[in-house]
Predict the 3D structure of the following.
Amino acid sequence: MSEELKKIATEAEGGMKKAINHLEIEISKIRAGKASPSILEGINVDYYGTPTPISQVANVQVLDTRTISIQPWEKNMLALIERSIMAANIGITPQNDGVNIRLFMPPLTEERRKELYKKAAAEGEHSKVAIRNIRRDHIEKVKKLQKEGTSEDICKGAEDEIQALTDKHIALVEKHLEAKEKEIMTV
């Protein structure tokens, strides 16, 4: 295979890996009834005019399977952290005791579990679409090289390699979704 075709296949694989990484991040944010500091990722608090992640202005701990404790390093940050959590609309009301903020995870109903799985499945579908778009774009690049004079057999091999990468990454998406479904549906 020519150097250009190898480069196209490597680019395709890199893009597909990014889609998988994005999926992993997004489904880790979908809580399955267990307390996890990851639900606070992406929530920023105004720290002296700078949006800063909560984990950088407070100590975040999991006390038990249903409770997260947030202890700010500066007492004046309590109200700001509480407001940021409320504004993020993560479905949990923070409890402020003047020293710590506690987040109590409500137990999930069957209906809510199904809703969370649908959300995870939607993220999985977005990842599959992204992977297929990467495949399409890179196969178009291969076909363009074929029109420019690269051998048809070599180009067909490159297309097959890109398709194999696509199949592999779509299977990974399915595997992540199965694991998340098992986590969500476990009572």
User: Anything to note?
Assistant: The CA atoms of residues 90 and 123 lie 17 Å apart. The longest helix spans residues 110-147.
